[in-house]
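re: that complex we talked abt at group meeting.

here r the seqs, copy pasted straight from the sheet so there may be weird spacing, ignore it
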Amino acid sequence: MNFFDRFFERRSRDLAHRTSRRGMLTRFGALLVGGAAVPLLPVARAQSDQPAQPVDEGDSTSCDYWRYCAIDGFLCSCCGGTVNTCPPGTEMSPITWIGTCENPGDGRKYVISYNDCCGKSSCGACLCMRDEGDRPPYRADKTNDVNWCLGTKSATYHCSTAIVLGVAFDR
Amino acid sequence: MSRLLLLPALFAASSSIAEINPDRAQFHYRMHCQGCHMPDGSGASDVPQMKGQIGKFLRTQEGREYLVRVPGSALSALEDDELAELLNWILREMGETSLPDSYNRYTSAEVGKFRQRPLNEVEAHREKLVTDIEHLTESP
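got the structure back, here u go
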């Protein structure tokens, strides 16, 4: 047996004495789990594209809820969905009416997207018509008296959501 | 001495035209464009895609004017300087590889001029422009 063989055999046996295969697996497992947790740290979260979330107080099944300042329709919150999501069996329209509402919780204005949910007949519950910022039809992008079920498989209107897109720019 | 004093003033004037306030521009994008063009400019159904496409229109003068003359721009409730800023922001954020190697940003003065002639037949005009630009790209 030459020198190299003896040298590596001795090193290998030393290593086997000092460590265990389970220990190695434990450390490797810890590395995997720890690595997966890194994106949850505040630094990574701060860099995500999530919009600034407001202090959100109030009853989202009531027309008085702050996000509904410009709504004209049935609240999805009363129809099996939420203020952000459509009820099952309906499709959210990608094309949408956008306005701003002031949040009494923090006194700031937010950009709100009133995405309609489409594909089932009108929900019929919680009809709200606050219409603040609504403009006549000659301002087509700022009128809410039209059916905004555009770009969906079905143009049948069911209810409206009110999704926060971000903080309004303060002039 | 007076000439030397003028130089910084000139720089200030020119930079104030081209400066983009990203928060304001994004707010105007959300309020006036996003409802149809989507948050990233990818468009939807019959709404044209701006993402990775819009820069093509800067290759011709007619195309440059088109981006201001489309109803969504020309008839918007934005002031000329706000519209110029918004268009420059959209180009920067969504133009991607469609942008020419170099281009001039919109000024409020040219936006004010182009939007005086809003388009009626938008789709036909757009098709013609796209064809013209494609021929431009194909020619050596």
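couple things i noticed - Chain B touches chain A through 18 residues (CB under 8 Å). The CA atoms of residues 42 and 94 of chain B lie 9 Å apart.
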